[in-house]
Amino acid sequence: MRQKIFQGNFAVALLLIFLLGLGLMACSTTVKERQGEPVKGEEKETSKYRAKYYHFEDVLVPGELNYKHKKSSIYETPKFKMGWMVFSKWRLDVESLIEFFSYNMEKDNWKMVNSFKGKESILNFSKPDKTCTIKITETWYEKIEVEIRVGPLGDKKM
């Protein structure tokens, strides 16, 4: 009888030590993150979500977004490139997407022309020779769709 009680207590003590060790490892990870040190295994996750240029070398897209090639189309000539790219992702913060595009488009020398924010947000940018419209749509089932359209800036004839 005493041996069974001892074995039970030993198993509980071993479980407590394991859980305590697991908790300490989690705390050390968050401390390293706060200090800005790379956490072991973090490189793989961040490279997966690294922002990327797709068909346009001056339109950076967040790495979390999934490219939908069947909904996208690019037309290219020796003088210009135009087209649209469609991306989607479940449960993504629309405000952070708007901030991402506003910051990075300016960094890539685009000028913000105007923006509309709501259930469907639209950001319009321009350069001397082309324009870009980014439409961010949030569906009722929390799916975010981002459509990026880039085209040449036409001459005004009125």
In short:
By secondary structure, this protein is an alpha+beta fold. It contains three helices and nine strands; from the N terminus they run ααβββββαββββ.
Task: Give a quick account of the main beta sheet: strands, pairing sense, barrel closure.
Answer: 7 strands, antiparallel
N-to-C series of helices and strands: HHEEEEEHEEEE
Give the CA-CA distance, first to last residue. 99 Å
Which value, in Å, is the CA radius of gyration? 25 Å
Strand content: 25-35%
Helix content: 25-40%
What's the average pLDDT?
Answer: 82
Overall structural class, as computed from helix and strand content, comes to alpha+beta
Total of helices: 3
Poorly predicted parts: 27-46
Named CATH topology of the largest domain:
TATA-Binding Protein
| Record field, number of beta strands | 9
CATH architecture of the largest domain: 2-Layer Sandwich
Which of globular, elongated, flat, extended, rod-shaped describes the shape? Answer: elongated
- What's the CATH C level of the largest domain? Alpha Beta
> What is the number of independent domains?
2
What does this structure look like?
The chain is of the alpha+beta class and 158 residues long. About 13% of the residues have low confidence. It has two domains: 42 residues, no CATH class; 103 residues, 2-Layer Sandwich (TATA-Binding Protein).
